Each structure stands twice: as structure tokens, then as C-alpha cells.
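Review box. Two proteins, two foldings.
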Amino acid sequence: MAAIKKRGKQSIAFSSPPVICAWGSVVGPKEGKGPWNEKFDLVLEDYLLGEKTWERAESRILEEAVKLALSKKGLTTGDAELLLAGDLLNQLVSSNYAARELAIPFLGLYGACSTMAEALLTGAMLLDGGFYERVVAAAVSHHYTSERQFRFPTEQGVQKAPTAQWTVTGSGAAVLQTAGVGPRITCATIGKVIDLGQTDPGDMGSAMAPAAVDTLKIHLDDTGRPSDYYDLIITGDLGNVGMALATEMFVKQGICPKPNYSDCGVLIYDDSQGVNSGGSGCGCAASMLCGPLLKKMADGEINRLLLIATGALMSPTVSFQGETIPGIAHAVALENYC
């Protein structure tokens, strides 16, 4: 029997679109000095939150984002039936330890920087399928934990390449329900792993851009929607270099999303902050979505948003072995209902 909710090759149309009824965002000091300071719920004064290590602080950031989101509807962690969350660190340690403290049934997800979109579409499928009534989707990253794992100890003061990006310290959490008031997740497209041979870990944007373009092309083909259907199409964290490459590839694919196209990694910082090509990390798309973007939807400034969160599926081990960097991108359509 044909899947009645599947559309085309890789997309899903939800028959009972879940509602994002509440959301919360927590960001670090550098992100708070960017252009969206007042749009985030909580801007941290430092990177440790009273903890002894950056890794422990990253778990706390995720905890706080989840609690913030739930509290906006007068809910506690006991009211959430499931937590879907992930981060960048080995074995999802930040999310695992946060889930330990939150005591919510937990499914850990890894999609690198695409994790927030993966959590949203997985949660939407579970709600639309009738398995749950309320779930929380979240993701987190921390600049200094990521530097320690993927790049160089910060104490070395290594000079970054112009193509490199700054991992966002931040988290976003969204409360998804079967009913309520708020933007609805109407459809989603699960991406394929795309690898065009990029090997430079200092240029993640170029590695992820082909996956973003592929997913958008398939999403539009599967749904029959024109590229101007959305008020905003936003990729996760390609940064300046990756966004420029994606824009060129869009043209070659016959897709013209401008002027309604941008990128979370480009938007989250301003040019004076010394972040080279822009922002990256699981917390980039998560905090931008659960901060400025969903607030714009709540205010009616954006009514149709397509989030295409992108991820570079690599590890330091395979990079040292000379492997290429595969990319993936998942798309989630958020729409305000009249």
C-alpha cells in the first residue's frame, strides 16, 4: 500500500500538522553582541555558567533552553512526553547529560549542524502518527567544546582561514503539540548524504552547500511549490562562503530563491565580530529559529518559512585519514494558519 503522507521522492506532508506552541533560546556572550541580542530569551554573561568545564556548561545551556520553552506555556519537564535533541560532541554527551537532569524520555539525534531540523521533522512525524501529544525538539553547541574536539586547543591561538566559521554557543528548544496556537509544521524533506569531494575541515560551508541545494530542489519538486512560495528560505549555517556557493548552484539548478533566501550562519553575527565566514554549529540554526525567526512568525512578519538545516558529517579521525566531508540537509516547512 502506498504511503499516503509521502510526497515525491523524499518529502512528507503531515495530515494533522503539529503546532510549535512555544520555544526558547539561550546564547553565549558573543552571540548576544550580535544583531539579534533582544530576540534571544537568555544571553549568558560567560561561557561556563558556574560549571568547571565547557562541556558541562553546554549541557546546562540545553537544559535551560528546554525549561525556558516549556515555562512559556506554564509547563514543566514532567509535561513533556519525549525529548529529541543532539549536539556535536562524541556520543552526544551534552544532550545525554542534559537529558539525565531533565528526566524526560529521550531520543538522541546526530545530524551535525542539521540536528535541529532532524529533531523537528522526527517530532512532527511522531505527533502526526498519533504516538505522542507533546514533544520537545532541541539542539545545542558550544564554541569552546567544538574547538577542543574538532580543531585546535584555544590556548594555541591558531589563526583561522578566511573560509572557517565560528561555532555558535547557543541552544534552541521548541515545544511541539498536536493542537494549540502557533506556527505549524506542514511538511518536511529528509535529505540525502551528498559528497562532492571537499576535504578541507576549515571550509565546512563549501562541503554542506551541495546538500542544501539538493534538498531544496527535491523539496520544491516533491511538493510542487515554486521557490517564491516561502516568505523566507533559510539554510542552517553555510556562512558567507557556503551561501555564495549555494546561490551559484541554485541558478544552475534553475532555482531562484532570492531575495527571500538567507543563512543562519550569515545572520547571527555582524561583520565587526571577527568570525571569518560566519557562524556554525548545532546551536546556530537552533537559536536563530527559536529566537528571531519564530518571533517574526509570531508577529506575522513571516508566514511561510522553510528551514534547511545543514550538517557536515565528519570527525577528526576520518579527516586525519584523508577522508572527504559528506554533507546533509533536512528541510522543515513552518506556516502560520489564518
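Next protein.
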Amino acid sequence: MSASQRTILVIHPGGLGDILLSVGALAAMRSDFPQHKMILLAGSEVGHLLGQCGVIDQSLSIESSQLSALFSGRAQISDVQHDLLRRCDLVVGWLSDHDGSLQRTLQKFGIPRVILQSPADAGCHHQSERFIQTLKGEFPVDMNPPVRLRLPDQVLQAGRDALRAVEIEHTIPLIVCHPGSGSRHKCVRADTWGTLIWGCRARHLMPLVVLGPADEQAEAVILEQSLPELPILRPRSITMLAAILAQAKGYIGHDSGVTHLAALLGVPTVAMFGPTDEHRWAPRGAQVTVVRGGSCRCMDWDAVRACAEKSCLNVKPDEVFEALDAIDFRYRRVTNS
């Protein structure tokens, strides 16, 4: 990057799924500002992944103290950070700025356009549209842009190597299963997962469970089913997780960031929903099927947590298998082409 190249700064403090739902909006900004360097201030792991995929040019970790002075309303930042903001033509932040302190701090650097908007809004049909809606009026954007994450060759090879290390070969179609979620109240019963994994094997599919650092309860759910010789992987990063997902012929999961990642990679995805609204939160992708139990009758999330019945999560395994059976297993695994 030249010393004079102009920049765009995007601030997104959301979780993995929220940030992945904004990929369409990020692509729209890149399309309208092709000569600018796009910088994302977000979680370090998802920022690294989006940089690997070419969605952004640079990521800054929101977990670190980097640029933290902006959020405290102080303009005393390092020379490097000051130079970044001095060259910035646009800041888009998906966060609340109730007292306007962040807006005022950014304006002190002479940034001509600052757009700060909470991602929470009930007026949009789908959450991805909320992120794009933020940009409307500032420059023309497509409300339904095609989105797809494309992994570079070295990342795809890392996924192949990770499977080979645990002696998983592609002799039969691989189905990645993620039994976790950001909330246990989004997860189907343990016996449902047992039925799904046995059913995959009966269909000559290879189920592989992936778990993240926050999936201790999900791991217990799987282990209590006493499933023999079930491979379980714990990817060390979101980028490695993406590399493993890219080797799959199909994916089964809940309303979670991992499910959004599988869908954006183009992996045929079955997303099991319960108390959350799939019309608002379903993953984006060309090969996504949503299945759910009954309608959720809880009025708010407190009611969801208190609900013992959780009929909305009584997902019928046959509906999941119907979606799996519809996958054309001639589907080629994810490539960067």
C-alpha cells in the first residue's frame, strides 16, 4: 500500500455469524471503492479469515488495545493509527453510539463520511439486509449481492492435511456436524444427534464432528451417545475450521456462526433452527436448507431460557435426512476457482 492510498474502516464488534452476514455489505463497499484499502476492526480470527479470502485488505483486532482510544472518546492515538484515520474517506460501524462520542472522535480526524448504526433493527426481512441498508443513501448497493467465501490454495491444502492426519480419506462423502451454538437453547436434543450420526452412517456417509473452544456442553452431548469410532476435530482457528469445512460434501448444524461459515463456503448446509427466526437469521448460500420443529411460542429470550418443552427444537431427523438425500454428491468440494 502506498503512503497516500485512501482507506475505508469498517468497525464490527459482532460475533462470527453476525460478521459473516455482513460479507455482502463488505463486498458492496469494495465494489464501490475499488482503489481504497478496506480495513476491518473486528474479532482477530474472523478478520484473518476474511483477509485470507480477499474480502478485506487488512484486519485490526477489536480484542486488543489498538484503536481503543476511539471508543473511549479520546483522540490521543499512535502515529500509525493517526495516519490510518487521516487517509480514511469512510467509516462504517455496526454498533450503537448513543452519546455520539465515537462519531465526534472520528470527525476530529477530518473523515468526510462516518456511518454508525446499530445492527439491531426489526424493520429488515433478513439480517444481511440490515447491514446493506446501512449503506443505502450513501452509495448505490445491490440489496441481494451474491456472496461466497473463496479460500486460497494453501488453506484448502491445510484442510486436506488435517483430515489425513486423523486418517479421514474421501472414499465416502464427508458430512461435517457441529452440535454446538452460541446458546444451548438453540441446540436440538442429544438423542437427535445420535439418530443423525447413525443415519449418516447407514447412508454410507462419513460424519465428522467439529468442536470449538466454547463447545464443552456440545461435546458432552455427543459423548453421551456412545458413538463408536466417531472422529472429532477441534480446529485451532476459524481459518482452519473453514479449511476442514471446505472438504465436506455436506454439513449439519444449528443456528450458529459455524453454520453461516459452511453456507458461505458453498457447502450444502442443513441448518436446524428453534427459537430464532430463520427468516431473519438463516445462513446465506446457494445450497441451504432450514429445518425446525414446531413454532416457537416464547415471547422473548428470557421465556426461551425458561422453556422446558422447547417444541421448536423437536426437529425430525427424517427431515434432515431428506435434505441430505437431496444433495447431489457429484458436487465438487470447495475450491478457490
